[in-house]
Every structure is written in C-alpha cells, then in structure tokens.
Specification:
352 residues; alpha+beta; Single alpha-helices involved in coiled-coils or other helix-helix interfaces; Heat Shock Protein 90; five-stranded mixed sheet; elongated
C-alpha cells in the first residue's frame, strides 16, 4: 500500500481520473446526440464499442505517460531524500546540483544553503571547543594545585606514618636480634607486612596521578597505549583497527580520546565482556569510531540504571565537536557504539 501512494502512482491515478471524467463526458454527449437526432450510424453497440476501445487505449497511454512524466520528478525527489538523510547524519559537505526553476529546484537550493550553514556551525562549535579547552587548562592548573595539596595530606596520613613506623620497628628489631631472636623474627614479619601495605598505597597514589589525556601524543598512539595498559590489567581480548589520518585539532583529539576512554571504562565495569572491537576509519572527510563488545548488553530503556552518566558524557563530548553519537544494545547481544566526527584541518597545517 505504501508503494501505491508514491508519486509515480499518484501521476497514474491522476491520468485515470481524467480518463474517467472524459468517458463520462463522451457518454453524455453520445447519448444526448442519440436522443435528440437519432442518427442511423449511432447505435448502442457502436457507443459501447467506441467507449470500450477508447478506455483500453487511454489506460495504456495513461500508464505509459504517467511513468514517463513522473520518472524525472521521482528521481529528483529521491535525491532530495538522500540529501536530507545525509544532513541528518552530520554529512554537511554533500550538495545537490539541481538547475530546475520549479519548487523542487528551490528546495534543493535551500537544502544546500542549510548544509553550508550547518557546516559553518560545526566549525564554530569546534572553535568554541578549542576556546573551552583553553579555559579548562586554566581551571586544570588550579585543580592541580588543590590535588597536590590533597595528595600531600594523603601521603602524610598514610605512607609517611607507615614509613615512620617502619623506621621505629626496624630500629627496635635491630636491638632485639641478639637478646630475643624469636621476637625479632615476629617484628620482621610485621615490618614486611607494613612495607607491603605502604607499597600498595603508594602504587594507588601513583595510579591516581597518571594523566587521563593524550599528553601530546596523537590520537592513534594514545588509543594504542590505553589498550595496551588495559590488556595488562584485564582478561579482555582487544582488537584495534585504525586507518591512518592526519592530526586533528588538539581539542578534537582530546575529546575523541576521552570518549573512547569512557566507553572502555563502561565496558570494563559493566559489560562482563571477553572481546572488544575498536575501529577508527576515515571516509569522506569524516572520522568514524566504532566500539563494540560481546558482553551482556542492556535494554536502552533502562540505561539510567547502568552507566547513564557515562553515556551522557560521551554524547555531550561528541556534540561539542560537531559530531554525532549513537548506541545500540540488547540484553545478551553486547553493546555497539558509533561516533561520527567531521574532520577539520589543523590550523598549523592549513597555514603551511
């Protein structure tokens, strides 16, 4: 039924309506002529034969002319539909060359202007993201000072006190070695346990100090290093496929890296997966990132119960740099994340 409501069949129906009205007019005219003048050549059989022949021939021409007349218009409208779909997916570089002066041509021209405006807005968003990154760096400096003060308190309250206890216990043990060897052995075991606890807390503090950004590395290098680190700390099999591409702006690469990091973090915490696939591809001046796992998945309607903050953060980061974020998941079928980012040339490369 949906196909019968298309433009092509609408054209054919309009021709059939005209055929029906024309036959009624001819039938009325012939009957009137027969009643008023009763010519010998105009009989009921001749009227039926004429109208039937006219109907058959007209139906054939209606279908043929309807298909031919609507074909070009249908192709133009289908192309407009494809153009709108591309714009909705974030591909603002596609254009429609339509030289027609009718309504379809004007719509194509307006869609081209809309694509240009959206592309300009993407550049504005990325420029704002760069400015936001500068403000974030300033705020990061202040947060770094505060974090250093907190770490200093933690070091004083935990590790420093344990090291002081180790010093006092080791000195006491040295004095007990000759007088009471058995008690010295017990204290040595306590010293070893205290040292192990201090070492564990120090490792936790060092892990907390590890930067969660690219630190000047390119995006592919950062992703590979992140995956290598996660492989050492988990039993998940990571598969990474990345196309070569030129360096993006610092803000864009930072956002994409944080999105990938957040996605992998959610996988480690919630998915219970054994395999994770990461694909980074470049096509038609766009960067495509696909992240999927074979974990337990979840129903999207209940995403507020699991990693909703992480999903919201990834979506916001994608939109901040003019991209789109989509997630597909179902219980027992894993989770699939698709991110599309328009590529923008770095300012230092464009100057060259």
């Amino acid at each position: 039924m949906q196909r019968l409501s298309s433009i092509r069949y609408t054209y054919i129906r309009s021709h059939l309506y005209i055929l029906f009205l024309t036959m009624l007019t001819l039938l009325t005219f012939l009957l009137t002529l027969n009643v008023l003048f009763s010519p010998s050549w105009l009989t009921g059989v001749s009227i039926v034969v004429f109208l039937l022949s006219y109907f058959i021939i007209s139906v054939i021409f209606s279908f043929y002319i309807g298909f031919k007349a609507s074909g070009k218009l249908k192709a133009r409208i289908d192309y407009l539909s494809v153009l709108i779909a591309q714009l909705s997916r974030g591909n603002y570089t596609v254009k429609k060359d339509d030289n027609g002066d009718d309504e379809v041509g004007r719509i194509a021209e307006e869609l081209n202007e809309l694509g240009n405006k959206m592309q300009g807005q993407v550049k504005s968003l990325q420029r704002l993201a760069d400015e936001k990154s500068d403000y974030a760096k300033t705020a990061h400096k202040a947060a770094t000072i505060e974090e250093r003060q907190r770490l200093a308190r933690d070091l004083h309250d935990a590790v420093s006190q344990q090291l002081f206890a180790l010093t006092m216990m080791s000195q006491a043990t040295v004095r007990l070695i000759e007088k009471n060897p058995e008690k010295a052995i017990v204290q040595m075991k306590e010293i070893a346990a205290t040292a192990l606890q201090a070492q564990t807390e120090m490792r936790a503090l060092l892990l907390h100090l590890r930067p969660v950004h690219l630190s000047g590395d390119s995006l592919p290098v950062g992703i590979k290093q992140l995956v290598q680190e996660l492989e050492q700390k988990s039993c998940i099999d990571f598969k990474v496929h990345m196309d070569p591409f030129t360096r993006l702006s610092e803000t864009t690469e930072e956002h994409v890296f944080r999105i990938v990091q957040e996605a992998l973090s959610n996988t480690l915490r919630h998915a219970e997966a054994t395999e994770v696939l990461i694909e980074v591809k470049v096509h038609s001046k766009e960067l495509f990132i696909h992240i999927s796992d074979n974990g337990k998945g979840f129903e999207l309607s209940s995403q507020q119960k699991m990693a909703s903050y992480g999903l919201k953060t990834m979506k916001e980061r994608s939109e901040e740099i003019g991209g789109t974020f989509a997630i597909r998941s179902k219980e027992g079928e894993g989770t699939h994340i698709d991110i599309r980012i328009p590529l923008q040339v770095r300012e230092d490369e464009s100057d060259d």
